[in-house]
């Protein structure tokens, strides 16, 4: 009984979340089929869907999604690790902070997408260029939030841990890391957004595979339905990674009253 | 804020009555108390933060198994003294020794309870107590939780507990390793009056059962008189008053109690004898 009520509540809440996207798609289709929006400007959702089905049939779509996802994840792993390690080091060792923080803050304020011409000159249009840009974009939000998270761990808890004989790695694992985790996960969530934005721009400008390439290639042949399809794919992938970040928060921060 | 609520029937407790637990074992040699409380001697201790001297050559000794209360106005250095004994501060001059041996910092048989419970919010109540149990022993942790009457809350997150319950979990964590010295840094300061009295009774009962040495820092003179064998007043970084509380336990908050409470309080407030004002003594 109570389970079915809960299920109904969940269903209602999911329905509410998706209400606006669904309305937009319906209105878009309606305006398109009335001819208010010309298909040369914006294809209707149905024709976009048809393009998608066609691309799935010939196998190109999943190949492109796979290429993009792989770049995104490799770049995220590299940049995220660098940001995490630096943030952790600078949060704990003040010498390391004095040494590197100023440089990091200077580099952080350069829009990383401004480096695209330089990156193409260095790496060409191969994988390295895109992975480099994603890693660069992702590293800073993770660095900042890890650094801030470790700095803001309650010093009373650390003192308590020391009086109970916790030192070194044991202190890190049972007090510092869990205390910094809420801030680190905020950084992860923010970095996931930057990851997709960087990849979209990088793939659109210079690529021979991936979703961005698919869009640019389709534009050359005026296949606007494929262009719209790739934009929608980015929206879905962005939503997917946000959902994953939320899932991480729910399972790792279940002690936190805010995340229950 | 004091809590002079008479808890029990008004049986007269004349202050001439022989003290029961006062200074038991004060004269025993240090080695005979190997499993009991630690004996402490602080000699000529100076602690300073930058230019500011907080303790200026302070001397105090605590007998094994004794319950000492340290009172004083805020900023007088009473918490610093406690942190010095705990090994959290280093003296720039003077010594701290336990059972005759010079202190070398933090010890596993000395536990400290702070004003805030300092529970790890990401660990369950039981796992918090296990931090204090040797080797993280689960059975010992459960036993300690049982002592403070919270065994049924073992699986909960600390965030759902009340302030008094959190302090009881912190007490269980401190007790789980069978400490020989338990230090309390105003642990009841943030609790409401009724919870405080409940906690005072619990601390007194556990101290009598476990025979550890206890030192409590408080600004509440009534709490000091209710709990301690001996009350010392810290003023300007040194001890300026040292009184034995010759009241039997359990202590009734009646005439004899009021005598000590007023005497110490007058001294804290540096009131003269004929100054009869009795108004608020929260410092």
Automatic annotation (TrEMBL), chain A:
Keywords: Cell membrane, Membrane, Transmembrane, Transmembrane helix, Transport. Residues 65-245 form the ABC transmembrane type-1 domain. It is found in: Cell membrane. InterPro entries: MetI-like, MetI-like_sf. The chain crosses the membrane at residues 12-31, 72-95, 107-125, 131-150, 171-201, 221-240. SUPFAM superfamilies: MetI-like (SSF161098). Pfam families: BPD_transp_1 (PF00528). It is a multi-pass membrane protein. Belongs to the binding-protein-dependent transport system permease family. This is Aliphatic sulfonate ABC transporter permease SsuC.
Automatic annotation (TrEMBL), chain B:
CDD domains: ABC_NrtD_SsuB_transporters. Residues 1-35 are annotated as: Disordered. The keyword Protein biosynthesis does not apply. InterPro entries: AAA+_ATPase, ABC_transporter-like_ATP-bd, ABC_transporter-like_CS, ABC_transporter_ATP-bind, P-loop_NTPase. Keywords: ATP-binding, Cell membrane, Membrane, Nucleotide-binding, Translocase, Transport. It comes from the Bacteria. One of its GO terms (molecular function) is ATP binding. Residues 40-261 form the ABC transporter domain. This is ATP-binding cassette domain-containing protein.
């Amino acid at each position: 009984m109570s389970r079915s009520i809960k299920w109904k509540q969940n269903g209602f809440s999911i329905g509410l979340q998706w209400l606006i996207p669904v309305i937009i798609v319906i209105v878009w289709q309606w305006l398109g089929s009335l001819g208010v929006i010309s298909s040369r400007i914006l294809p209707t959702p149905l024709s976009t869907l048809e393009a998608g089905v066609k691309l799935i049939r010939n196998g190109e779509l999943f190949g492109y999604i796979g290429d993009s996802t792989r770049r995104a994840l490799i770049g995220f792993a590299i940049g995220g690790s660098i940001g995490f390690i630096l943030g952790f080091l600078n949060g704990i060792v003040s010498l390391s902070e004095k040494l590197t923080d100023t440089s990091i803050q200077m580099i952080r304020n350069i829009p990383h997408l401004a480096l695209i011409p330089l990156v193409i000159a260095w790496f060409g249009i191969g994988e390295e260029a895109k992975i480099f840009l994603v890693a660069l974009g992702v590293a800073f939000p993770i660095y900042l939030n890890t650094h801030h998270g470790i700095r803001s761990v309650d010093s009373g808890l650390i003192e308590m841990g020391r009086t109970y004989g916790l030192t070194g790695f044991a202190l890190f694992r049972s007090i510092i890391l869990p205390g910094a985790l809420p801030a680190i996960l905020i950084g992860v969530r923010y970095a996931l957004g930057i990851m997709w934005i960087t990849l979209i721009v990088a793939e659109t400008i210079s690529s021979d595979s991936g979703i961005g390439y698919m869009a640019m290639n389709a534009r050359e042949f005026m296949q606007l339905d494929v262009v719209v399809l790739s934009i929608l794919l980015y929206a879905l992938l962005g939503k997917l990674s946000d959902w994953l970040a939320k899932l991480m928060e729910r399972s790792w921060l279940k002690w936190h009253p805010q995340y229950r | 804020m004091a809590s002079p609520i008479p808890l029990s029937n008004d049986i007269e407790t004349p202050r001439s009555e022989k003290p029961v637990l006062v200074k038991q074992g004060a004269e025993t040699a240090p080695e005979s108390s190997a499993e009991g409380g630690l004996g402490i001697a602080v000699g000529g201790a100076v602690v300073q933060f930058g230019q500011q001297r907080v303790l200026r050559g302070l001397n105090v000794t605590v007998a094994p198994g004794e319950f000492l209360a340290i009172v004083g106005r805020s900023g007088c250095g009473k918490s610093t003294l406690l942190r010095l004994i705990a090994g959290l501060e280093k003296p720039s001059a003077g010594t701290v020794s336990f059972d005759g041996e010079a202190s070398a910092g933090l010890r596993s048989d000395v536990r400290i309870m702070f004003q805030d419970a300092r529970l790890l919010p990401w660990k369950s109540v039981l796992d918090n107590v296990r931090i204090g149990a040797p080797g993280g022993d689960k059975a010992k942790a459960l036993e300690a939780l049982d002592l403070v009457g919270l065994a049924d809350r073992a699986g909960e997150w600390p965030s759902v507990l009340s302030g008094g319950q959190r302090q009881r979990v912190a007490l269980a964590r401190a007790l789980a390793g069978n400490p020989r010295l338990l230090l309390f840094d105003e642990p009841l300061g943030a609790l409401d009056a009724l919870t405080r009295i409940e906690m005072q009774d619990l601390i007194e009962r556990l101290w009598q059962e476990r025979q550890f040495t206890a030192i409590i820092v408080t600004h509440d003179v009534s709490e000091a008189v209710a709990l301690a064998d001996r009350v010392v007043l810290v003023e300007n970084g040194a001890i300026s008053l040292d009184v034995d509380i010759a009241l039997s336990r359990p202590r009734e908050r009646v005439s004899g109690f009021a005598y000590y409470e007023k005497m110490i309080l007058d001294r804290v407030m540096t009131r003269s004898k004929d100054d009869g004002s009795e108004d608020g003594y929260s410092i």
